Amino acid sequence: MTIHFLNGFTCNTNFPGNWRCGTLELLVETDQGLLLVDTGLGTHDYVHHSGILKLFRLIMDVPLDPDEAAIRQVIRLGYKPQDVNHIVLTHMHFDHCGGLPDFPWARVHVYRKEYEAFTGRWRQWRTWAYDHSHIAHGPEWVFYDDTGEKWFDFNAIRLPFIPEMWLLPMPGHTPGQCGVAIKTNSGWLFQTSDAAALFNDKAPDWLIRFGLGPYQPRILQFASTHPDVQVVSGHMWLDFFEKRVL
Ligand SMILES: [Zn+2]
User: Fold this and answer.
1) Hey, which CATH number is domain 3-241, 3.30.428.10, 3.30.450.190, 3.40.50.12710, 3.60.15.10?
2) C or N: which end of the chain has fewer Cβ atoms within 10 Å?
3) Is 244 helix (H, G, I), strand (E, B) or coil?
4) How much is the pTM?
Protein backbone atom coordinates (compact mmCIF):
# COMPACT_ATOMS: atom_id res chain seq x y z
CA MET A 1 0.00 0.00 0.00
CA THR A 2 1.41 3.34 -1.06
CA ILE A 3 0.17 6.87 -0.44
CA HIS A 4 1.67 9.75 -2.42
CA PHE A 5 1.45 13.32 -1.14
CA LEU A 6 0.78 15.66 -4.06
CA ASN A 7 0.67 19.45 -4.19
CA GLY A 8 -2.33 20.34 -6.35
CA PHE A 9 -2.19 24.13 -6.09
CA THR A 10 0.63 26.36 -4.93
CA CYS A 11 -0.84 29.38 -3.18
CA ASN A 12 1.61 31.77 -1.54
CA THR A 13 0.79 34.83 0.54
CA ASN A 14 2.58 38.05 1.32
CA PHE A 15 0.04 39.02 4.01
CA PRO A 16 -0.56 38.33 6.88
CA GLY A 17 2.66 36.35 6.52
CA ASN A 18 5.19 35.42 3.83
CA TRP A 19 3.78 31.91 3.46
CA ARG A 20 4.78 29.43 0.76
CA CYS A 21 2.06 26.78 0.66
CA GLY A 22 0.80 23.88 -1.40
CA THR A 23 -2.61 22.22 -1.38
CA LEU A 24 -2.46 18.61 -0.24
CA GLU A 25 -4.03 15.80 -2.20
CA LEU A 26 -3.41 12.11 -1.56
CA LEU A 27 -2.99 9.42 -4.20
CA VAL A 28 -3.73 6.07 -2.54
CA GLU A 29 -3.32 2.54 -3.88
CA THR A 30 -6.44 0.66 -2.72
CA ASP A 31 -8.07 -2.71 -3.32
CA GLN A 32 -10.20 -0.97 -5.97
CA GLY A 33 -7.50 0.81 -7.91
CA LEU A 34 -6.15 4.27 -7.38
CA LEU A 35 -8.02 6.71 -5.19
CA LEU A 36 -7.49 10.46 -4.91
CA VAL A 37 -8.35 12.40 -1.77
CA ASP A 38 -9.04 15.83 -3.31
CA THR A 39 -7.75 16.85 -6.72
CA GLY A 40 -6.33 20.37 -6.57
CA LEU A 41 -6.93 22.41 -9.70
CA GLY A 42 -7.73 20.70 -12.98
CA THR A 43 -6.27 21.24 -16.44
CA HIS A 44 -9.18 23.44 -17.56
CA ASP A 45 -8.64 25.77 -14.55
CA TYR A 46 -5.30 26.75 -16.05
CA VAL A 47 -6.94 27.66 -19.35
CA HIS A 48 -10.17 29.29 -18.14
CA HIS A 49 -9.59 31.22 -14.94
CA SER A 50 -12.77 31.27 -12.86
CA GLY A 51 -13.86 34.35 -10.94
CA ILE A 52 -12.67 32.91 -7.63
CA LEU A 53 -9.28 32.01 -9.13
CA LYS A 54 -8.94 35.55 -10.51
CA LEU A 55 -9.68 36.85 -7.02
CA PHE A 56 -7.01 34.58 -5.53
CA ARG A 57 -4.53 35.87 -8.09
CA LEU A 58 -5.29 39.43 -7.03
CA ILE A 59 -4.75 38.94 -3.31
CA MET A 60 -2.21 36.10 -3.29
CA ASP A 61 0.90 34.98 -5.12
CA VAL A 62 -0.38 32.12 -7.29
CA PRO A 63 2.14 30.78 -9.83
CA LEU A 64 -0.45 28.61 -11.67
CA ASP A 65 1.79 25.81 -12.92
CA PRO A 66 -0.28 23.35 -15.02
CA ASP A 67 2.15 20.57 -14.09
CA GLU A 68 0.46 20.64 -10.66
CA ALA A 69 -2.76 19.22 -12.18
CA ALA A 70 -3.38 15.82 -10.57
CA ILE A 71 -3.69 14.05 -13.91
CA ARG A 72 -0.19 15.17 -14.91
CA GLN A 73 1.23 14.10 -11.55
CA VAL A 74 -0.46 10.68 -11.81
CA ILE A 75 1.21 10.19 -15.21
CA ARG A 76 4.62 11.38 -13.94
CA LEU A 77 4.40 8.81 -11.14
CA GLY A 78 4.02 6.09 -13.80
CA TYR A 79 0.31 5.37 -13.37
CA LYS A 80 -2.46 5.50 -15.95
CA PRO A 81 -5.11 8.20 -15.35
CA GLN A 82 -7.81 5.58 -16.10
CA ASP A 83 -6.63 3.69 -13.01
CA VAL A 84 -7.95 6.50 -10.79
CA ASN A 85 -11.30 4.85 -10.10
CA HIS A 86 -12.35 6.82 -7.03
CA ILE A 87 -12.10 10.38 -5.73
CA VAL A 88 -12.93 11.26 -2.12
CA LEU A 89 -13.57 14.97 -1.49
CA THR A 90 -12.88 16.65 1.84
CA HIS A 91 -14.93 19.60 0.61
CA MET A 92 -15.80 21.21 -2.69
CA HIS A 93 -13.89 24.49 -2.76
CA PHE A 94 -12.32 25.12 -6.17
CA ASP A 95 -8.80 24.37 -4.96
CA HIS A 96 -9.80 20.89 -3.72
CA CYS A 97 -12.04 19.56 -6.50
CA GLY A 98 -11.00 21.40 -9.69
CA GLY A 99 -9.50 18.21 -11.10
CA LEU A 100 -12.81 16.28 -11.17
CA PRO A 101 -13.35 16.88 -14.94
CA ASP A 102 -9.93 15.32 -15.68
CA PHE A 103 -11.22 11.98 -14.29
CA PRO A 104 -14.81 11.81 -15.65
CA TRP A 105 -14.93 8.01 -15.22
CA ALA A 106 -14.14 8.14 -11.48
CA ARG A 107 -16.79 7.67 -8.80
CA VAL A 108 -16.84 10.72 -6.53
CA HIS A 109 -17.39 10.11 -2.82
CA VAL A 110 -18.62 13.06 -0.77
CA TYR A 111 -20.45 13.88 2.45
CA ARG A 112 -24.03 14.64 1.43
CA LYS A 113 -24.17 17.93 3.37
CA GLU A 114 -21.21 19.25 1.40
CA TYR A 115 -22.81 18.36 -1.92
CA GLU A 116 -26.06 19.99 -0.80
CA ALA A 117 -24.20 23.17 0.17
CA PHE A 118 -22.45 23.15 -3.21
CA THR A 119 -25.64 22.71 -5.20
CA GLY A 120 -27.93 24.73 -2.92
CA ARG A 121 -29.20 28.15 -3.84
CA TRP A 122 -28.33 29.78 -0.55
CA ARG A 123 -24.99 31.56 -0.82
CA GLN A 124 -22.79 32.69 2.01
CA TRP A 125 -19.14 33.66 2.12
CA ARG A 126 -17.99 30.12 2.96
CA THR A 127 -19.53 28.86 -0.28
CA TRP A 128 -18.19 31.56 -2.60
CA ALA A 129 -15.19 29.41 -3.38
CA TYR A 130 -17.35 26.76 -5.06
CA ASP A 131 -16.96 26.62 -8.85
CA HIS A 132 -19.94 24.86 -10.43
CA SER A 133 -18.09 24.12 -13.66
CA HIS A 134 -16.17 21.46 -11.71
CA ILE A 135 -19.15 19.08 -11.78
CA ALA A 136 -20.65 20.08 -15.14
CA HIS A 137 -19.50 16.76 -16.66
CA GLY A 138 -21.94 14.92 -14.37
CA PRO A 139 -19.77 12.61 -12.26
CA GLU A 140 -21.12 9.45 -10.69
CA TRP A 141 -21.68 10.42 -7.05
CA VAL A 142 -21.58 8.32 -3.90
CA PHE A 143 -23.12 10.24 -1.00
CA TYR A 144 -22.50 9.64 2.68
CA ASP A 145 -24.64 10.42 5.73
CA ASP A 146 -23.83 10.26 9.43
CA THR A 147 -23.94 6.74 10.84
CA GLY A 148 -23.17 7.32 14.52
CA GLU A 149 -19.81 5.54 14.23
CA LYS A 150 -16.56 6.88 15.63
CA TRP A 151 -12.91 6.95 14.58
CA PHE A 152 -11.14 7.54 17.89
CA ASP A 153 -13.50 10.19 19.32
CA PHE A 154 -14.39 11.85 16.00
CA ASN A 155 -17.73 11.31 14.27
CA ALA A 156 -16.92 9.00 11.39
CA ILE A 157 -18.34 7.27 8.32
CA ARG A 158 -16.60 4.14 7.02
CA LEU A 159 -15.54 4.34 3.37
CA PRO A 160 -15.69 1.07 1.37
CA PHE A 161 -11.97 0.60 0.71
CA ILE A 162 -8.94 -1.29 1.85
CA PRO A 163 -6.82 0.12 3.41
CA GLU A 164 -9.36 1.03 6.08
CA MET A 165 -10.56 4.56 5.49
CA TRP A 166 -12.95 6.92 7.29
CA LEU A 167 -14.71 10.15 6.36
CA LEU A 168 -14.77 12.50 9.37
CA PRO A 169 -17.35 15.32 9.23
CA MET A 170 -15.91 18.51 10.73
CA PRO A 171 -18.15 21.34 9.51
CA GLY A 172 -17.12 24.96 9.82
CA HIS A 173 -14.83 25.89 6.95
CA THR A 174 -17.67 24.71 4.71
CA PRO A 175 -21.05 23.23 5.75
CA GLY A 176 -19.84 19.70 4.94
CA GLN A 177 -16.08 19.91 5.42
CA CYS A 178 -14.63 16.48 6.27
CA GLY A 179 -11.34 14.99 7.27
CA VAL A 180 -10.16 11.60 6.00
CA ALA A 181 -8.34 8.94 8.05
CA ILE A 182 -6.41 6.16 6.28
CA LYS A 183 -4.82 3.10 7.92
CA THR A 184 -1.15 2.92 7.04
CA ASN A 185 1.55 0.32 7.60
CA SER A 186 2.70 2.14 10.74
CA GLY A 187 -0.49 3.63 12.16
CA TRP A 188 -2.87 6.19 10.68
CA LEU A 189 -2.75 9.15 8.36
CA PHE A 190 -5.29 11.85 9.35
CA GLN A 191 -5.86 14.44 6.62
CA THR A 192 -7.77 17.18 8.46
CA SER A 193 -8.04 19.25 5.27
CA ASP A 194 -9.25 22.80 5.90
CA ALA A 195 -10.48 22.09 9.43
CA ALA A 196 -6.98 22.92 10.68
CA ALA A 197 -3.78 24.73 9.72
CA LEU A 198 -1.35 22.46 11.51
CA PHE A 199 1.64 23.53 9.48
CA ASN A 200 1.13 27.16 10.34
CA ASP A 201 1.97 28.19 13.92
CA LYS A 202 2.16 31.83 12.82
CA ALA A 203 -1.50 32.39 11.95
CA PRO A 204 -3.47 34.03 14.79
CA ASP A 205 -6.13 31.92 16.53
CA TRP A 206 -8.97 34.26 15.56
CA LEU A 207 -8.04 33.96 11.88
CA ILE A 208 -7.97 30.16 12.03
CA ARG A 209 -11.32 30.00 13.80
CA PHE A 210 -12.85 32.49 11.38
CA GLY A 211 -11.56 30.78 8.24
CA LEU A 212 -11.38 27.13 9.22
CA GLY A 213 -14.01 26.64 11.95
CA PRO A 214 -13.74 25.40 15.54
CA TYR A 215 -11.74 22.15 15.21
CA GLN A 216 -8.10 23.28 15.32
CA PRO A 217 -7.62 23.13 19.15
CA ARG A 218 -9.16 19.66 19.30
CA ILE A 219 -7.04 18.42 16.41
CA LEU A 220 -3.83 19.80 17.97
CA GLN A 221 -4.72 18.10 21.25
CA PHE A 222 -5.42 14.85 19.41
CA ALA A 223 -2.10 15.05 17.52
CA SER A 224 -0.12 15.60 20.72
CA THR A 225 -1.65 12.53 22.41
CA HIS A 226 -1.56 10.18 19.39
CA PRO A 227 2.01 10.01 18.09
CA ASP A 228 1.13 6.97 15.94
CA VAL A 229 -1.24 9.13 13.89
CA GLN A 230 0.36 11.37 11.26
CA VAL A 231 -1.80 14.48 11.18
CA VAL A 232 -1.69 16.76 8.14
CA SER A 233 -3.84 19.58 6.84
CA GLY A 234 -5.17 20.71 3.48
CA HIS A 235 -2.48 23.31 2.97
CA MET A 236 1.12 22.59 3.92
CA TRP A 237 4.45 24.39 3.52
CA LEU A 238 5.93 23.75 0.08
CA ASP A 239 8.91 21.79 1.43
CA PHE A 240 6.48 19.24 2.95
CA PHE A 241 5.78 17.88 -0.55
CA GLU A 242 9.34 16.98 -1.50
CA LYS A 243 9.47 13.23 -2.14
CA ARG A 244 6.59 12.43 0.19
CA VAL A 245 5.44 8.83 0.06
CA LEU A 246 3.97 6.64 2.79
ZN1 LIG B 1 -11.38 25.23 1.37
Assistant:
1) 3.60.15.10
2) N
3) coil
4) 0.94
